[in-house]
Write the structure tokens for this entry.
Amino acid sequence: TSDPAPTPPPAPPEEPKEEEIEEQQPRLCCKVMPPRWIRALLHYRFPASIDPFTNLVYVLWLFFVTLAWNWNMWLIPVRWAFPYQTPSNIYLWLVTDYLCDLIYILDILVFQPRLQFVRSGDIVVRLRLQFLVPLELFYFKTGINPLLRFPRLLKIMSFFEFNDRLEGILTKAYVYRVIRTTTYLLYCLHCNACLYYWGSAYEGLGSTQWVYDGQGNSYIRCYYFAVKTLITIGGLPDPTTLFEIIFQLINYFVGVFAFSIMIGQMRDVVGAATAGQTYYRACMDNTVKYMASYRIPKDVQNRVKTWYNYTWQSQGMLDEQELLVQLPDKMRLDIAVDVNYDIVSKVSLFQGCDRQMIFDMLKRLRSVVYLPGDYVCKKGEVGREMYIIKAGEVQVVGGPDGKTVFVTLRAGSVFGEISLLAVGGGNRRTANVVAHGFANLFILDKKDLNEILVHYPESQKLLRKKARLDRGIKTTIQFTIFPPRCSAPSPIVTEMRHSPRSRAKWREKLQERVGRRKKRERHELSPKALKAVFMWRKGCTFMSLCTLLQRGRPEREEPWFLKIIQLCLKSHRPSFCFFIPIDSSFS
């Protein structure tokens, strides 16, 4: 075999050229990121249409348009009358003028085509171009005359629109109204000062005693003259020439009307700002006068005054329903859903009901404020309302002294809902409920609920079913026909209280017991059965008539107890009845 051919040695690597070396070297660069607000501004896309009532961006833009309009409104008279526009600063005036014109042009090209307004119920778009008439072209013939910018003042509608939108945003709009009315008065004085300097320059500065003498700050001196003229302070020099007399007469007439109009408008603004407070004071004064005329006790009068003060401070009004009466049903429903739906949705009684039924019910809720110690409901009275705690606390009290607190209910809790659906009795209150501190409750009347349920039969069936079950639970736990037995508590109640895990078993026993009770209620119990049940509750196997009367003193007003007495009287001899201690209640 022949030996393999030797492999040639590898060629030395070629040296890279200078151009390649420059390309392989990393290029160090610094990429500057603009701020986030600039990037957001660059990526902002204008909507196809703008709602002037809800778009805050449009309100912000109106602020800049109003600034441009105020620049023209305040400074065009100054530049026309006073010698403040000179060849040395003319470029500054022109730059500011054209900047305001740029704002007007952007408003026409960007915002006005997208602006919506209502005409005969239809939303349409309208453009206003009359305020951009290019009268500045006459500058080449007449020179730079500020009066040629007069069409810029025609954009006054943007100023009024900005005022309306800003008042809708501010919580205390009356403060802005007072400032705006004061600005109106200052602008009238501003225009009068400009006219006075123009008249003085026309007559000749310092030519008479009436005109401006040319000393001091010209604007301040002329403004002082305008204040004394419009407010009719007096102490002005008498005019001498015909021009001065006519000018001063017009000043006096305009001053009287302008000042009276401003004062009247200021009075209306302040009156509108304090209208609610005035109404509150009038209602409270009339109530106090009524209580004093009928000699109501002082403690009752103090509680009434406390209710007025707390209601006004907490709500800012005495009756919330007065504000919603003028609104259409759809808007009232929207407001009621936003305010009350979260609270009503927590009520287990209304869970599973028709959503529209709950919406109709929200419009019927009314707000009531209770003072500390006020009884919301009392034991034994007929229940016709359901209560939902909006704010504050209430306590369920009872016991021998009526002051034992069983439970404290806080905001979001509901009580009295079973009374709304009770049929054929069983709708009496079983405990006293007292306001613990100031409490604001929502109340739903039984009449209003029945009017609503007429249109929702399925929800009515569901509510009736829940009401029967809940009433059965309450009847089993609290036996209301006969007093509780003196022995140990029922094993069902004990199991319910001490063994919550067996709730399903307890519910089955409860339903059986409720069924037996309903069956018993269908047939009137005989007097013998009533007596047997009464003795069983008292823990006795035999009871004479005297013992029956002594042991049954708490129940002597009940109709079923009178039937037992009649049964015992029939079963005994008449002579035996002579020794029975019967008081006037059994006569």
